[in-house]
């Protein structure tokens, strides 16, 4: 059950173990007195990080040697090593460690509705205020003229947004491909030419792999559009900056609201591209709809391809 102490191997640092998960997973194997120490730690992580060995023992109604045994039982070298790993676990923020209140229970779901729909409205309003229409039109012109468009996004939201951008653009006849593998981003960026374009998506604008891929693309003189946070490193690299900042609601169980803003930007950009490419874009859309309707019954004004 003992976990190895982090050590450097081949120039890389092994990640510090998530000690909170180790405590929870090991709980059933602990002795009763050690479980009381675990209960104290999990109930108030901030206290456990700052408290002395004696203070933890007193709150757990256990001896100081028991606290030391607890630390070793979960794979730490002692109390000091335990405190270091515990402090690292808290780095993500206390929002993830405890609930602020009960889940919505009213029949109309009012608290749930206000959190989800309210944040979606706020995100869309932020996008409407922040995005420069002139930048949307500049971006659409770059897309319409590009030989090919590569869309880069990493992580949960940005990966799905990159795929959505591809879905928006190919329907207008744009040669567009979304990529979410870090190595593929670099390899694809290295193939680009001056008449190619990258659309890079990052909520923070700090994702290193995205930034490096865009730097490579710029090195080979491809154009770049950034859908990202204002003033970020990624935004500064791009020819066209489609930026918005959406403060997150402090509810860790709610999906991030910024994706609503980014989806609005993607729809603005792709619609502007459609107008740039009309009538060629309209003909491509007609072909897609014709193919779908001859494959199965449906209505003309149903979602395209649905």
Write structural notes for this entry.
This protein has 14 helices and seven strands. The chain is α/β, with parallel strands linked by helices. It has helices spanning 19-26, 32-43, 45-50, 53-60, 64-73, 79-89, 110-130, 133-145, 156-170, 182-190, 208-219, 233-237, 258-277, 280-295; strands at residues 8-9, 12-13, 149-153, 176-179, 197-201, 223-228, 240-243. α2 packs across α4, α9 (156-170) packs parallel to α13 (258-277) and α10 (182-190) packs parallel to α11. A five-stranded parallel sheet has the order 4-3-5-6-7, with helices on both faces. Strands 1-2 form a two-stranded antiparallel ribbon. It folds into two domains: 8-96, Arc Repressor Mutant, subunit A, CATH 1.10.10.10; 111-295, Glucose-6-phosphate isomerase like protein, domain 1 (Rossmann fold). The relative contact order is 0.10.
Task: Domain count, please report it.
Answer: 2
On the 0-100 scale, what is the average pLDDT? 87
| Count of strand segments | 7
N-to-C CA distance: 51 Å
Tertiary shape: elongated
Radius of gyration: 26 Å
Counting DSSP H or I runs of 4 or more residues, the number of helices is 14
> Biggest sheet: strands, sense, closure?
5 strands, parallel
- Tell me what portion of residues adopts beta-strand conformation: 5-15%
Q: Do you know the CATH architecture of the largest domain?
A: 3-Layer(aba) Sandwich
Written as H for each helix and E for each strand, in order along the chain, the element string is EEHHHHHHHHEHEHEHEHEHH
The computed structural class is alpha/beta
The low-pLDDT segments are 1-12
Arrangement of strands in the largest sheet: 4-3-5-6-7
Helix content: 40-55%
CATH topology name of the largest domain: Rossmann fold
State the CATH class of the largest domain.
Answer: Alpha Beta
Give the CATH H-level superfamily of the largest domain. Glucose-6-phosphate isomerase like protein, domain 1
